[in-house]
Inverse folding.
């Protein structure tokens, strides 16, 4: 029994060591990808700020603008743009995104525009109407976001959808990522500061809003995608680091159990030898 137990422990140690090598490699890959993802995320911020400021100027300084893109309309159908991961093994990254949108799914009929393989798989299981979008979040370009933004605006203008929400994961730090929900249409902006000057736009605010909205939506989706990709790599790095440490602790525990089993086996063999020797002496 002791020999069989030692064999099982050796096989277990070999298995856990192999797993630890995999998790360590995945941690290193995630760390490498995180650096480039953070650089891409930071580079997307200026474009987003300019697009958002343009829409804010139109909304804040032109009270006569009656566009439904700002004022909204009766909610009959919602479009949810959801950015999730391309793979698993990233802790609770994907689960937090899906948990955030569950409260929205029962309020009104909806269609989904998923970005990332996990988001597409989730809505396929839900049986929802799924719009065409990138299969992978990593590598999404601004042109991809412009195509999605134009499709969203076309559906809004045709009355197929009345509200658009964006669900993604905001990158706070390597250890902290937060699932967020932002309303894109009608535009949700902060209240203007008191004493803000009146601005005159040419052409009128509604025409300018129609021209600026595609870039605004594309910028919001692109920036959110960059945040989500960086968050996914950070979450995977943390998860794989924890898995590697747990594997190391498990190997230490298995080595201890193996040494104890080996010691017990040696003790048993010595006991049997001594007992055999004493038996022979007694016979003599």
């Amino acid at each position: 029994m002791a020999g069989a137990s030692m064999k099982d422990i050796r096989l277990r140690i070999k298995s856990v060591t192999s797993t630890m090598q995999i998790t360590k490699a995945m941690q290193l890959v995630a760390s490498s990808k995180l650096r480039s993802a953070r650089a891409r995320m930071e580079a997307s911020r200026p474009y987003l700020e300019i697009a958002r400021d343009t829409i804010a100027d139109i909304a804040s300084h032109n009270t006569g603008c009656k566009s439904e893109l700002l004022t909204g309309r009766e909610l009959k159908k919602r479009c949810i743009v959801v950015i999730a991961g391309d793979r698993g093994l990233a802790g609770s990254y994907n689960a937090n995104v899906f948990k955030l949108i569950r409260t929205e799914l029962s309020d009104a009929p909806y269609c989904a525009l998923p970005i990332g393989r996990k988001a597409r798989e989730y809505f396929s299981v839900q049986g929802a109407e799924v719009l065409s979008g990138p299969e992978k979040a990593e590598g999404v370009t601004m042109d991809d976001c412009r195509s999605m933004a134009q499709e969203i605006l076309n559906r809004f203008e045709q009355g197929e959808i009345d509200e658009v929400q964006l669900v993604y994961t905001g990158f706070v730090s390597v250890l902290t990522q937060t699932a967020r929900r932002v309303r894109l249409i009608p535009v949700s902006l902060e209240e203007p500061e008191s004493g803000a000057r009146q601005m005159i736009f040419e052409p009128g605010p509604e025409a300018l809003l129609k021209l600026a909205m595609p870039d605004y939506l594309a910028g919001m989706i692109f920036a959110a995608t960059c945040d989500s990709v960086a968050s996914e790599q950070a979450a995977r790095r943390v998860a794989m680091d924890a898995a590697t440490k747990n594997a190391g602790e498990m190997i230490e525990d298995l080595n201890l159990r193996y040494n104890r089993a080996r010691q017990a086996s040696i003790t048993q063999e010595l006991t049997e030898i001594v007992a055999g020797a004493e038996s022979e002496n007694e016979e003599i």
